[in-house]
Design goal:
Layout: H1 7-35, H2 39-65, H3 76-91, H4 98-126, H5 130-167
């Protein structure tokens, strides 16, 4: 009979999940930057790519804290979210609504990451992994800030531009 799974096991599985997700996001961000029509959008996606590299480094440190190799586990959720973003890039390529769609896709990614990092941070605290708590919180705070920047960018530029074009 297999051993009963513990919170430690769940923490490791979820850590592998977000590690895989961040690696996939790192690949997707340059594509999103190239697709974006506005300079603000392009710059924002490239800035977040740089932040994502730092987040992956922090995750590597969390793996070190728990004495496990930094390895990902296929995350179907992030693959689906990224596929939706690619679909928007294709279907809205020549549309003034493209940037609004890219922002929407990026916000879906951010919300997934916020959920994962918030959960991992809570579990790390429960498991007494104080060093991991700080690293996971740093990633969480960056994701929250990125989500807020995306909202502001959408509301200030991308959404009004898309809706003005629709009214013409």
């Amino acid at each position: 009979m297999p051993a009963e799974k513990t919170l430690n096991d769940l923490f490791l599985d979820t850590l592998k999940d977000i590690y895989f997700a961040e690696k996939q996001i790192l690949k997707a961000l340059p594509k999103m930057a190239r697709a974006a029509r506005s300079e603000e959008g392009k710059a924002g996606f490239l800035k977040h790519r740089d932040e994502t590299e730092g987040q992956i480094e922090r995750l590597g440190q969390v793996f070190e804290i728990i004495g496990k190799p930094a390895r990902g586990k296929t995350c179907e959720a992030i693959q689906g979210i990224i596929a939706e973003g690619e679909e928007i890039m294709e279907e809205y390529r020549d549309s003034p609504a493209l940037d609004a769609g890219l922002i929407s896709s990026a916000k879906a990614v951010e919300h997934y990451e916020i959920a994962r990092y918030g959960t991992l941070k809570s579990w790390a605290a429960q498991l007494g992994l104080d060093g991991a708590v700080a690293l996971l919180d740093a990633n969480l705070q960056e994701e929250i800030a990125t989500d807020q920047k995306l909202t502001a960018l959408g509301e200030a530029a991308a959404n009004p531009k898309a809706s003005r074009q629709a009214a013409e």
